[in-house]
């Protein structure tokens, strides 16, 4: 949905979350976190994989914050 703003939790196995960003200029939360609200239905995760492994990325909607 293009107006979605739910809270999303991101978990990574075989890697590390370097940052989460949603493009919202009013969002003052930092980038180094494991959960963030969607902005217009979008969220971007920057992941660093462990050498020789494929990262498994899980994202789940959360209720409230």
UniProtKB/TrEMBL annotation:
<keyword id="KW-0326">Glycosidase</keyword>
<dbReference type="InterPro" id="IPR040605">
    <property type="entry name" value="Glyco_hydro2_dom5"/>
</dbReference>
<keyword id="KW-0378">Hydrolase</keyword>
<dbReference type="InterPro" id="IPR013783">
    <property type="entry name" value="Ig-like_fold"/>
</dbReference>
<protein>
    <recommendedName>
        <fullName>Glycoside hydrolase family 2 domain-containing protein</fullName>
    </recommendedName>
</protein>
<feature type="domain" description="Glycoside hydrolase family 2">
    <location>
        <begin position="1"/>
        <end position="54"/>
    </location>
</feature>
<dbReference type="GO" id="GO:0016798">
    <property type="term" value="F:hydrolase activity, acting on glycosyl bonds"/>
</dbReference>
<dbReference type="Pfam" id="PF18565">
    <property type="entry name" value="Glyco_hydro2_C5"/>
</dbReference>
<comment type="similarity">
    <text>Belongs to the glycosyl hydrolase 2 family.</text>
</comment>
């Amino acid at each position: 949905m293009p107006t979605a703003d739910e809270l999303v939790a991101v978990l990574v196995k075989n890697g590390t979350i370097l940052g989460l960003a949603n493009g919202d200029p009013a969002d003052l939360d930092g980038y180094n976190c494991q959960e963030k609200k969607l902005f217009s239905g979008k969220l971007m995760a920057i992941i660093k994989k462990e050498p020789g492994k494929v990262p498994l990325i899980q994202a789940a909607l959360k209720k409230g914050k």
